[in-house]
Amino acid sequence: MKIGDTPFRTIWPDRDGPSVHVIDQRALPHRFVVATLRSWQEAATAIRDMTVRGAPLIGATGAYGLALAMQADPSDAALAESFQHLLGTRPTAVNLRWGLERMRRLLQPLRPDQRRDAAYAEAAAIADDDVAVCSALGQHGADLIAQAWTDAGRSRPINVLTHCNAGWLATVDWGTALAPIYKAHRAGVPVHVWVDETRPRNQGASLTAYELAAEGVPHTIVVDNVGGHLMQHGSVDLCIVGTDRTTRTGDVCNKIGTYLKALAAHDNGVPFYVALPSSTVDWHMRDGVREIPIEEREAAEVTHMTGETEAGDIATVRVTPKGSPALNYGFDVTPARLVTGLITERGLCEASEAGLLSLFPQAAAA
Ligand code: MRU
């Protein structure tokens, strides 16, 4: 996607050296900052402190992290150490494990002197694959939005509610939940997006709104508790969200608060879709609520908020009484029964084992 007139991906290798560049998402929407990762340790820190975030982008950053590790030391011991450390940076998004395992499968059988170039090539392939997959699922989702527009008599914009940021900033390009919106918008289908602010880190208010504004997509930011009210009043045609891990049975783990939106959608007969690359399916898990590890982050993300002052400075302020404890779960699980359908790179399917296997039959044995 473009920032101004310049096309950007969220991660790219340096043209002349071994380092890797990323967009520092902590600075958005107020500043556009490019950060440089020079070692696997810096890649690990970037994932943990959310310089980069979003399930597919975490996977690509993990892959480039292993390339940086092979650049410094291509030994078996360095491969094992960097793999374990990168894997431990964030627990919920399965794309991290997926990206690291794809890299290790390729690198382990190679001689150490062959690993550096192979690692950079494979990390680049992972990034390119993500772009192609998100573009493909975006087209399938755009068809859904176009159909909703036809069903509405082509008389008004289609209102889509989304939660968190599952746009191009969360992937290498295009996004998951936002890719259908971008494709529909570019095809001339009028779309308006309700953007959940997504406390505590405000990925919706900061990142989704930033992306949609850059692409010229009409949108309105709402606080997290508004969705149910909007749905009761017929102001939402469909919900589309992303996911950090989807079980083989179709349970969906996404940013905290997604489950409540799915409940409200179910109660109001609003279709609730989840857009995902197949790298987000954990074929080894069946029961999302009991099996998916849920990240718990620092209480400071709840007790404090960061923003830009009228004077243009970035400031962090406390919004809670000193001494009141706070709890900060990053994700929740929406059971498959509340999901209308999954939008994947191979098309739409039911959120169920049969639905997923109808599109990805090779996973039957996993
Ligand atoms: O904690 P984050 O910002 O990494 O969480 C991201 C999300 O929950 C996204 O919705 C998810 O990764 C799907 S992204 C394409």
Architecture overview:
This protein has 2 domains: 128 residues, translation initiation factor eif-2b, domain 1 (Four Helix Bundle (Hemerythrin (Met), subunit A), Up-down Bundle), CATH 1.20.120; 218 residues, Translation initiation factor eif-2b, domain 2 (Rossmann fold), CATH 3.40.50. It starts with a strand and ends in a 7-residue tail after the last helix. The mean pLDDT is 98. Helix 2 packs antiparallel against helix 3. It has 12 helices and 18 strands. A hairpin with a 2-residue loop joins strand 1 and strand 2. It binds 5-S-methyl-1-O-phosphono-5-thio-D-ribulose. The site of 5-S-methyl-1-O-phosphono-5-thio-D-ribulose has 17 residues, from helix 2 and strand 11. 5-S-methyl-1-O-phosphono-5-thio-D-ribulose binds next to helix 2 and strand 11.
Helical proportion, percent range = 25-40%
Structural class: alpha/beta
**Class of the largest domain in CATH?**
Alpha Beta
Number of domains: 2
Rounded radius of gyration (Å): 20 Å
Global shape = globular
Biggest beta-sheet profile: 7 strands, mixed
By DSSP (H or I, 4+ residues per run), the number of helices equals 12
Strand order of the largest sheet: 8-7-6-9-12-17-18
Question: How much beta, percentage-wise?
Answer: 15-25%
Report the order of strands and helices.
EEEEEHHHHHEHEHEHEEEHEEHHEEEEEH
* Ligands, ions, cofactors: 5-S-methyl-1-O-phosphono-5-thio-D-ribulose
CATH-defined superfamily of the largest domain = Translation initiation factor eif-2b, domain 2
CATH architecture of the largest domain: 3-Layer(aba) Sandwich
**Poorly predicted sequence stretches spanning 5 or more consecutive residues:** none
Count of strand segments: 18
Distance between the termini: 35 Å
Mean pLDDT over the residues? 98
CATH topology of the largest domain: Rossmann fold
